[in-house]
Amino acid sequence: MTGASKLVLVGRVAGAFGVKGEVRISAYTETPLSLLHYRDLKREDGSPGLTLISGRAAKSDFIGTAEQIATKEEADALRGLRLFVARATMPEPEEDEFYLADLIGMAVVDRDGQALGKVKAVHNFGAGDILEIAPPRGATWYLPFTRAAVPQVDVATGTLVADPPGEVMGDP
């Protein structure tokens, strides 16, 4: 997926809210109401998902109405639907901040510039972000996304410098 067509995950349908066709969306944005700014949310394949009409915040969730939902049953049927927006519609991140979607596909090199692979995915199992690296050959390996392990990220060139612990690279 090119930079222009990259999608960023912004929420997931949690189900109906009440009995009047409102939907609860677990928002992954800085504030739940940010979803209204994007309005037209897409499915993972880029096809139309939900078009938000109105809403309000409830803790970290968005509660609102969408053009595609008229009943509680319709909202419940969409439970689990992941919602995306085009990366190009999002504001540029601050210095030393990154959209995880921008990291996927980046070349990974060591401090000497030797290729280590490409970022295949970004995971978070509860203790922070972890980069899954696909090397040119062999099994994927994982690298904590910390300043110590990843001292430099250059989104413009699509490269990040990694300083993996020795045991990750097979050193005793």
Question: Overview of this structure, please?
Answer:
It is a single chain. The protein contains 3 helices and 12 strands, in the order E-E-H-E-E-E-H-E-H-E-E-E-E-E-E. It has helices at 34-38, 72-77, 100-103; strands at residues 7-17, 22-27, 40-42, 48-58, 61-66, 82-86, 107-109, 115-124, 129-134, 141-144, 152-154, 159-161. The protein has a 6-stranded antiparallel β-sheet with strand order 3-4-5-2-1-6. A 6-stranded mixed β-sheet has the order 10-9-8-7-12-11. A hairpin with a 5-residue loop joins strand 3 (40-42) and strand 4 (48-58). The radius of gyration is 19 Å and the shape is elongated. The two termini are 38 Å apart. 23% of the residues are buried.
How are the SSEs placed, and which strands pair?
Elements: E1 7-17, E2 22-27, H1 34-38, E3 40-42, E4 48-58, E5 61-66, H2 72-77, E6 82-86, H3 100-103, E7 107-109, E8 115-124, E9 129-134, E10 141-144, E11 152-154, E12 159-161
Parallel strand pairs: 7-12
Antiparallel strand pairs: 1-2, 1-6, 2-5, 3-4, 4-5, 7-8, 8-9, 9-10, 11-12
